[in-house]
Write a structure and sequence with these properties.
single chain; about 425 residues; Cytosolic phospholipase A2 catalytic domain; two-stranded antiparallel sheet; 10 strands; about 40% helix; globular; EC 3.1.1.-; lipid metabolism; lipid degradation
Length: about 425
């Protein structure tokens, strides 16, 4: 038997093997190498499968950023989703198709979280509560009623002042008494909990498991948008209490959280083994006013805005690096570049113009560069890929996702029937 000193001494063979294993893992992460010869040095038999077969298809993830000061919250994402849904209806031949029909999970922060909630919450008929066009109309048609107050931008008033009674009434009218369980697909909506001093992610998966993580959807939306004041809220059983402020402060770009959730949730996404098994569509908030033009020192609010924008860009860059060579086929980022929505006279028109723009994207080991395709061309490609994935699933006997149903739905979606019909009809809703 060897003495402890013997096996504690460094071994060149062990160091070499460790180096080879590390190199293999690094290459696998960055480039998705799947050549069996790479694993021979580590002792892996060549006949051993190196990755799960992609026969089960790709998990489709929609991620929507929270807005930033100086932008029109949600408008760029709303325009992109409206255009995407229209293309999906045309290409699929289904005039009633909804965004939720073509995605397996939605993540949204701030106004992006509200958009995700509107598009994925179950309506009275069992279908998603809003179409993308209805959601966009809801975000834009109230400009006239705000003109008298001199405030510009519907969503900056509704979403950022989430502690106000008008905002509470608005969310109540939209979502009624529905909870996280009442969504047609999994959703992830972040906030920051002042009570625990940590980010908190509202998740349908957790809500289905226990009442302690199920919350009213109207309070979830108020929490992820809160900025002026914290939102005091509690779970449906009263055991979990939060003092929430906006998700944009802690997780403006929720893409990384969504990817991590899917890759680690083997109950609902059993075949998602790596980024090559995902199709991610990430929507940015548009371009804010460019910092540094004024000689005056940045204000505290400006520093917060810069930090939020930097965090969102860093997540985008990190996710792009993680996808490596799969980025071109598995990850799409839609973002404004050159048009400041916050300065536009017609913000919806400005958001439409961003569809004809080429934006910047992260490139492996090469920083960032201007894309070759416009945002509109990217959406066209995404449409085709989503249709292909739908057709593949229809012809396959292997389920891509196994979404856990809510065994005992708590609410009746009929409580929001009036809200849907009144809010999406012509004219402005009265709060």
């Amino acid at each position: 038997m060897e003495s402890p000193a013997a096996w504690m001494e460094p071994s060149l063979d062990v160091d070499k093997l460790s180096y080879e294993i590390f190199s293999i893992l690094e290459n696998k992460f960055l480039f998705g190498y799947d050549d069996p010869k790479l694993f021979l040095a580590a002792g892996t038999p060549p006949e051993t499968p190196l990755k799960v077969s992609t026969a089960a298809g790709r998990v489709r993830i929609l991620s929507i950023d929270g807005g930033a000061a100086g932008t029109s919250d949600g408008l760029l994402a709303g325009v992109a989703l409206s255009r995407l849904e229209a293309s999906l209806r045309k290409l699929s031949g289904d005039p009633a198709a909804r965004i939720a029909d073509f995605f397996d999970l939605a993540a949204g922060s701030g106004a992006g979280g509200v958009l995700a909630a509107m598009l994925f919450t179950r309506g009275p008929d069992g279908r998603p509560l809003f179409s993308a066009d209805d959601a966009l109309r809801l975000l834009t048609k109230n400009h006239s009623c705000l003109a008298a107050s001199g405030e510009k931008g519907l969503l900056r008033k509704i979403f950022r002042r989430s502690g106000g009674s008008s905002c509470r009434t608005f969310f109540r009218r939209v979502f009624g008494d529905t909870t996280l369980r009442d969504t047609v697909k999994p959703v992830l909506i972040p906030c920051y909990d002042l009570a625990s001093g940590a980010p908190f992610v509202f998740s349908r998966v957790d809500a289905v498991e226990t009442d302690g993580y199920d919350f009213l959807m109207r309070e979830v939306c108020a929490a992820t948008c809160a900025a002026a004041a914290a939102v005091e809220m509690r779970s449906m059983d009263g055991r979990t209490r939060l003092r929430a402020v906006g998700g944009g402060l802690a997780m403006r770009n929720p893409t990384a959280a969504a990817v991590t959730h899917v890759l680690n949730n083997k109950q609902e996404f059993p075949f998602a083994a790596g980024v090559e098994d995902l199709l991610v569509v990430s929507l940015g908030p548009g371009e804010a006013e460019i910092a540094g033009k004024s000689p005056a020192p940045p204000s505290a609010a400006e520093f917060v805005r810069i930090a939020g924008m930097g965090q969102a860009d860093m997540v985008d860059q990190a996710v792009a690096m993680a996808f490596g060579k799969s980025m071109a086929t598995n990850y799409v980022r839609i973002q404004g570049h050159g048009v400041s929505l916050g300065k536009a006279v017609d913000e919806v028109e400005a958001a439409e113009r961003t569809m004809a723009e080429r934006n910047v994207e992260s490139v492996l080991f090469r920083g960032r560069k201007l894309t070759e395709r416009t945002n509109g061309e990217k959406l066209e490609w995404v449409t085709e890929e989503l249709i292909k994935e739908r057709d593949r699933r229809r012809s396959s006997s292997v389920p891509t996702v196994l979404i856990k149903p809510a065994i005992t739905p708590r609410t009746s979606c009929s409580t929001i029937t009036t809200s849907v019909s009144s809010i999406t009809s012509s004219g402005s809703p009265r709060f």
